[in-house]
Amino acid sequence: MDGQRLSCSEARQIDLVEYLAALDHQPQKVRGADYWYLSPFREEKTPSFKVNKTFNIWYDHGIGKGGNLVDFGILYHQCTVKEFLQRLDRQPHIQNAVPNHQKDPAETKPKIKILSVSEIASPALEQYLEFRKIPVELARQHCRQVEFELHEKRTIALGFPNRSNGYELRNANFKGSSSPKDVSFIDNQTNQVAVFEGFFSYLSFLTINKNQEAPLSNCLILNSLAFLEKSRALMEKYGRIHLVLDNDAAGRSHTRKVLEWSDKYIDRSYFYNHHKDLNEWLKANGQEPGQQLRRGRSI
User: Fold this and answer.
1) Is the link from the previous residue into 40 a cis peptide, with omega within 30 of 0?
2) Which of 193, 211, 194, 191 is closest to 202 using CA atoms?
3) At residue 51, what are phi and psi to the nearest 5 degrees?
4) Are both 55 and 128 inside the same structural domain?
5) Is-contact 98 6, C-beta < 8 A?
6) Beta-carbon neighbour count of residue 224 at 10 Å?
7) Domain count, the chain
8) Residues of the domain holding 162
9) Residues 190, 287: one domain?
């Protein structure tokens, strides 16, 4: 890499199977493009951690999380994105796993091609929403069923629209986004804004507050922490800014940074203390305990 630090886009191109091998994790079985591992995140006897070598993505069925190599690295090493890229910089054999043609990402980066957008009707997506404790009817109000093509394979996923007409795409085995990548903003005509890292935290917020009659605060869904600082001007248009970021290392680091900007910012992560994010709290507690978020402490 000629001494230059890896970018996120370059890091995502590193082969996950090779990276796991560098961490002494070997597949227990291989079925086509799917490599199954004992989870790197816990002790287990039956493999529940899958890497799809075609898409170069992972999914851990035990915790219901997945993503690309960067998502894996920050969770595995409990660090920020910046810290993970620095860690990769110190591993030349890992850097060399980046394809040489990555120097021209515009030509080589796989493109997600949207084929169709419709109302959520897939039983698999409805089952995924049930697993995430999000009512299907609520999801239908805010998400779409998106069929897309990647690596000449067709896939359907929940699509959450951003303000530039791109989609965040999720299903039980895939996490990605179509171009252009951007934030999502819901204007409820209030002087407050709640800031979420991902759209499942936003859907969890709506689920918890589904019986509330008063208007909810405006909602900003970042869709990536990379948009947090870029959204500062938008957030500070409002009198109070509620931070509902993830409770992992990256989320906590960004929360601490933002709290130094202004006393307008309020950290609301104590609502879901001991859980990675608001959706993990919802999955653990169900919908009804959300009453405690509304009694005098609601966002």
Assistant:
1) no
2) 194
3) -115, 125
4) no
5) yes
6) 17
7) 3
8) 113-177
9) yes
Give the CA dihedral 139, 141, 145, 146, nearest 10 degrees.
Answer: -120
Paired with 51 in beta bridges are 35, 58
Cα–Cα distance measured from residue 215 to residue 189, given in angstroms and rounded to the nearest whole number: 8
DSSP 81-144: HHHHHHHHHT-HHHHTTS-GGGGSHHHHS---EEEEEE----HHHHHHHHHTT--HHHHHHH-E
Listed as own residue / partner, the contacts of 101-107 with beta carbons closer than 8 Å and 24 or more positions apart are: 102/9, 102/10, 102/13, 105/9, 105/10
What's the rounded Cα separation, in Å, for the pair 299 and 293?
Answer: 8
- Pair 194, 172 in one domain: no
126 and 203 inside one domain: no
Per-residue pLDDT of the chain (299 residues; tens, 9 = 90+): 444 477 888 888 899 988 988 887 888 888 888 999 999 998 888 899 999 988 899 999 888 889 999 999 999 989 999 899 888 877 655 654 554 434 444 444 457 899 999 999 999 999 999 999 999 999 999 999 999 998 788 999 999 999 999 999 999 888 888 988 899 999 999 999 999 999 999 999 999 998 877 778 999 999 988 899 999 999 999 999 999 999 988 889 999 999 999 999 999 999 998 899 999 999 998 755 444 444 334 45
Cα-flanking dihedrals φ and ψ of residue 53, to 5°?
-70, -25
